[in-house]
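User: Some background: our group keeps a shared notebook of sequences we're curious about, and every so often someone picks one and asks for a predicted structure to add to the entry. Today it's my turn. The entry only has the sequence so far, pasted here. Could you supply the structure so I can complete it?
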Amino acid sequence: MSMSALRRAIASTSALAGALALGLTTAPAHAAPTLNYAALGDSYSAASGVLPVDASNLICLRSTANYPHVVAARTGARLTDVTCGAAQTKDFTESQYPGVAPQTDAVTADTGLVTLTIGGNDNGTFVDAMLACGSAGILSAGQGSPCKDIYGSSFDDAIDANTYPALKGALRSVRAKAPGARVAVLGYPWITPAKADPSCFAQLPIASGDVPYLHALQAHLNAVVQRAAEETGATYVDFAQASEGHDACQAVGTRWIEPLLFGRNIVPVHPNALGEQRMAERTMSVLGLG
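Assistant: Of course. Here's the predicted structure to add to the notebook entry:
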């Protein structure tokens, strides 16, 4: 081969290599499909009382700082948020308020992720128990267990008889709308400590003997939520250990739940912004997201 022919061959080979390299570096990348995420549930999902409020639906008192928004922001998911304060399991398939669609309407065949907290408002479990025990605590000046003495196992009995089957029905309605979606059911972070803290009575006026009573009631509700989740193929996100030491009796910056009195949220006995953030982080960790 002549010298000029050799030079031409080398030049052609270099040009081909350059073209191949350019083609490799400029080939269009295939981006992962966006995760379609539907957030359902009650005020613990909606972060009722946390600012800023979602102005698109003021009746539900939903915050744009709730845990679904945190999850969506960190994962890049496409969020449809229909969480609503005071929601019960029946509101998954019925309209909670005029103009508010059943929550499962937000779940479609292409939904890839569903998160929710639900069950605490059924039978008035949280509201009735907190108000009843708070009133009894004030009247007894924090002594004894007046709430337990009056109500005994009635709250627990209602959870077993009514909340449990209603939870299963609600979760089945979600699964029917999106058979392939990952469904995460969050437990409720601790509201009270396991034992009475006398220094907390001004903020959470529960009699000393009723603090463990309410703590056990919440543990029972969470256990039923977990059972319903597991029996319907959903993932349960447990906060029993994660939220320990972050109850409503703890200091600002430590507590995830605001107390009944003198709290910083407009809605008492609900998660604050820190609590919602930690709920999001725990959920993402359990699901392997982010």
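Suggested note for the entry: The chain has eight helices and five strands. Strands lie at 36-39, 78-81, 113-116, 182-186, 235-237.
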